[in-house]
Design a protein that fits this description.
This protein is of the alpha/beta class. Helices cover 34% and strands 22% of the residues.
Length: 348
């Protein structure tokens, strides 16, 4: 782990969009990345100037294309609305820049395909933070280990609901919560389960519902649409089931590997047998020290996704995690769920 001031080799970067989210999460994360922030672009000129002065960036713009032309940049971070991402991303690719863009990447999967056509040899990563969370990465690690896989099913719980007029939402390109926040549980489940072959959604008459994902590897995902859940308290949960074990992520922070115990029905009398080879293993931040592993930019995946982006640029390697292909997969599932109306919708 290194701090920005300690890296010998840094990327010259710019950022487009320095609103509340970027100011709270993206800019602070750069403290831990091999980057030198050279330019800032925002439609609010005053906000761009004040932020540039704070972070020591020399360039200040209201037009991204102008920043791409005038600044000697290696990469750009895009933190704007999904309506603006496709054009800005393609412009950056055409200018020879690597691109990190916040989720959601676009309004439709076809727009992500257009980005792929412009990408060439540039590195691109989409900020699906929950796919990069330490908790998610731990689940992927364990289920890749002999004796725990293959993954059979996933259960997710997230307080969200899909609109009844899903087809109209897509036609009118409406930016709804299923896109803004639904991509969080979808990206996590796809990161663990892999590509999806079909999606079905069943809505409850009083709200809520289920979104069923059929993964190409044979696993099944059940995303419980916990509409009405209180989002001001811990509300998010995921369980992953394999052969003779299962794992759980609670509130994004607590990861549990349930290994079970030696057991005979009607004979076993103790729930805590001798030794360390059975029972549950738990990982969670302690929050007792002012150290990095407790901070939200690390626990929620911001650092992992942005460092992954920088490392792959420096190593001249294409991204796999959070790639545009991964983003296209998430968007296809998003669209299929809107079109379902209780029926299974196949994904090409």
């Amino acid at each position: 782990m290194s701090y920005q001031r300690e890296f010998e080799k840094k990327l010259n970067v710019g950022i487009v969009g320095v609103g509340s989210h970027a100011y709270r999460n993206i800019l602070p994360t750069m403290t831990f990345l091999p980057v030198s922030l050279r330019a800032i672009c925002d439609i609010n000129r005053r906000r761009a100037e004040v932020t540039a002065a704070q972070y020591g960036a020399k360039g200040c713009y209201t037009d991204a294309a102008e920043m791409y032309r005038n600044e000697n940049l290696d990469a750009v971070f895009l933190c704007v609305s999904p309506q603006c991402h496709p054009e800005l991303t393609c412009e950056a690719f055409d200018a020879g820049l690597h691109v990190w863009l916040e989720k959601p990447p676009a309004m439709r999967a076809s727009e992500v395909e257009e980005m792929i056509r412009h990408r060439k040899n540039n590195v691109a990563v989409v900020g699906f933070k929950k796919a990069f969370m330490p908790s998610t990465q731990k689940v992927i690690e364990i289920f890749s280990t002999a004796g725990y896989g293959p993954l059979r099913s996933i259960l997710g719980m997230y307080p969200i609901i899909l609109p009844e007029d899903g087809e109209r939402v897509l036609q009118e390109r409406r930016y709804i919560n299923w896109l803004a926040n639904g991509c969080h549980p979808l990206s996590l489940m796809i990161a663990v389960g892999g590509a999806v072959s079909a999606v079905a959604v069943h809505r409850g008459r009083n709200g809520g519902g289920v979104c069923v994902l059929e993964f190409r590897n044979g696993a099944l995902g059940n995303l419980h649409l916990a509409d009405g859940g209180n989002t001001t308290q811990p509300f998010e949960h995921y369980s992953f089931f394999g052969d003779g074990c299962h794992m759980a992520i609670d509130n994004n922070l607590r990861v549990t590997l349930h290994r079970g115990i030696p057991f005979q029905y009607g004979k076993t009398t103790g729930y805590a047998p001798e030794g360390l080879d059975s029972g549950a293993v738990v990982w969670e931040p302690q929050n007792s020290l002012a150290t990095l592993e407790n901070k939200a930019i690390f626990t929620q995946g911001f650092y992992n996704e942005m460092r992954y982006f920088c490392d792959h640029i420096l190593a001249s390697r294409p991204a796999k995690q959070g790639s545009l292909e991964f983003a296209r997969e998430v968007m296809k599932v998003y669209e299929a769920a809107l079109l379902s109306k209780g029926d299974m919708v196949k994904i090409a």
